[in-house]
Amino acid sequence: MPLRLLHVALGIWAMVAGTARGAPLDMTQYQPSFEDNFTHHDITAHGGQGSVWTAHTPWNGDFGDDVFDDPGPHSAFSFSKEGLAITARKDATGKWHGGLICSVDRDGPGARGFSQKYGYFEMTAKLPAGAGVWPAFWLEGADKRSGTSEIDVMEYYGHAPGEYHITEHYWIHGQDTLGAWHIVTVPGGILTTKYNTYGVAITPQTTIFYFNGVEVWRTPTPPEYNQPMYLLADLAIGGGWPYADLFSPRIMQIRAIRAYTQEH
């Protein structure tokens, strides 16, 4: 089967096999391993200095139709009692600026920051509205010797306010050899008017996705996910969708990002 058709087939299989079961998340089996409620500024441009977050991807491969800002007085990042706000806005030239946070400062040897093999990972956030916004919460595999493991726990496209996407990737030389995906439908507007929690539990056998503590999809854990994963959250613009009519600014509000290990 041609690779493109194989990806489509895998995606359709995943949609059928991943029918929502509605099982609630049982947190009694977990203990906290990472938590940031964003009560103070702890982001640096490229890591170091004891910071929790870096403002760019570890592979220097920022993406989207905007520029990811370094932290600073007029950057995309601000803090309040509501947590971290990532603001996307146009500059005087019409170029969009957004922001990204990552829990490690680089890939490979010498990496500093948080990553974890297996466990439960979640973000509580209120998303921006408007066609062209592209916020996400995702995990990336720390071992990139053979390929790149990626779990998109939440990927939202602003032109479709009643849904968000979950995707499992494994990239080899730019080709996605896994390509399992699921669309979570929700009442229109709740993603941008309320705080919601997006989570994933990874075990050696199963990967289970949750929305507000209720299961929405599960898949067998691929061998590529049997490694430490680090955390990323971002507000980008575009992602292949039109954004010419998007008003500036747009704000993603993150209340907390947490991780847990499973008790044995």
Task: Give a verbal description of the structure.
The chain is mainly beta and 264 residues long. Helix content is 7%, strand content 46%. The chain has a single domain (3-262), classed as Jelly Rolls (Sandwich), CATH 2.60.120. It has helices at residues 3-17, 190-193, and strands at 30-36, 43-44, 53-54, 66-68, 77-80, 83-90, 96-102, 115-117, 119-126, 133-141, 148-155, 163-172, 175-176, 180-185, 196-202, 206-211, 214-220, 228-237, 250-262. The protein has a 17-stranded mixed beta sheet that branches. A hairpin with a 2-residue loop joins strand 5 and strand 6. It is globular. The model is unreliable at 1-20 (pLDDT under 50).
Quick overview of this protein structure:
With 264 residues, this protein is mainly β. The chain has helices spanning 3-17, 190-193; strands spanning 30-36, 43-44, 53-54, 66-68, 77-80, 83-90, 96-102, 115-117, 119-126, 133-141, 148-155, 163-172, 175-176, 180-185, 196-202, 206-211, 214-220, 228-237, 250-262. The radius of gyration is 18 Å and the shape is globular.
